[in-house]
Automatic annotation (TrEMBL):
It comes from Micromonas pusilla. This is Aspartate ammonia-lyase. InterPro entries: Aspartate_Ammonia-Lyase, Fumarase/histidase_N, Fumarase_C_C, Fumarate_lyase_CS, Fumarate_lyase_fam, Fumarate_lyase_N, L-Aspartase-like. One of its GO terms (molecular function) is aspartate ammonia-lyase activity. Residues 417-467 form the Fumarase C C-terminal domain. It comes from the Eukaryota. One of its GO terms (biological process) is aspartate metabolic process.
Amino acid sequence: MSTSTAPRGPHRLESDIIGSMLIPRDALYGIATARAMENYDITGVKLSAYPDFIRAFAFVKKACARANFEIGLLPRNVHDAIASSCDELLKDDALHEHFTVDVIQGGAGTSTNMNANEVIANLAQRRMGLPLGDYSAVCPNDHVNLCQSTNDAYPSAAKLAVVFRHTSVVHALRELITSLRAKGDQFGGVIKMGRTQLQDAVPMTLGQEFHSFASTLEADLAFMQRNVDQLYEMNLGGTAIGTSICADARFSHEAVKALSELTRLPLQSPKDFIEASSSTSSFLLFSNILRRVAVKVSKICNDLRLLSSGPRCGFNEINLPAVAPGSSIMPGKINPVIPEVTNQVCFQIMGADQTIATASEAAQLQLNVFEPVIVYNLLNNLKIMTNALNTLRTKCVDGITANEDACKKSVDNSIGIVTALLPLIGYKKASAVAKEALETGAPVATIAAKYAPAEKVKEYLKVEAMTCAGTIEAR
């Protein structure tokens, strides 16, 4: 607990077990936050950059205050002051500037928890007409943090922040899927060559290709929505290591109940508080889901870049919207910059997932002290994933057009269509047709007529029929 003396010019003096510090007079944070600001100049990214995290803390601290009031540990005036201060944080983002701690810090998030405790306590003091930093009526530790530890308040707020932020990713992913589906419908009649190992395979439609992009992401959308409930476990009341030391036996139930009512989420307490104290498995799972989305989106971007390569010496099957000149030296060049930037976001998410996995594994005994780097990377991944998906959709996918002539030419010139003759002439003869066509440049149909009636060959080589299953006649 810190103590304060009267303001000294533009500053006030606060003290703790280590000593005294001058705090800006109007700052809502206190000495614990000020020490963290001195100690952790790491990323340059402050808590204020993540408003969902701050709002999550406001919900957690309001729920805890309600629980402590209900069980008789907080007087009404203190509860009301804390609850109203939390409401201010929920409504007024301008107050978030007082969350000044670097997101990556030592102490398992203690500095973040104390930043929240001090801001809420000072807002409460101000509402009661008392000076900032006084803490005589509302103390960051004894009142705002009552029946809590960083080790239950921090992960609970972090989980809520991920839940809040994930809705933006879900929306962005759903919109991208819709856009890809629309292009699939639009390109349904465009016949092109499919490829395996970058070699000609068999015909398909451009529409089928875009529908497949949508389908692969639909699976991840469902997986993300189905597994968000893994973040609904709140270990509030477990305090330091899960034994609930310094917490009333009634607190955990009342706090989680209040938090569930405030957020309108089906939150619950863990079956084993000690296990929950050190576990980051729900963060790890959600990071894995984002990595899976990133892998698939990156593959789609790879395909878009290949399919649009050219314009004269590449595939040139689709046109991506031109959004910027492509070169400082080559006139007229347009590059696929939107898929490129999306690729890079996906690489970042995959790499950050490895950091999260490493930090999760590094837990020791009853606590994982590396939660800050986990939370930072997960919240950042959610943010940049949302932005990348929206950018890919609006700046690229929505404006894609098909080069139907190029697609048709590739089919007409391909030897891959010989595959359709397997049911008619068999693998060995079809291989001979392919070999001769490649060596002589003669049309596949002409050579295949040596092995089967020309009309039958023509029937089997209808490219439209090659894009879906049909009826096979016995030879």
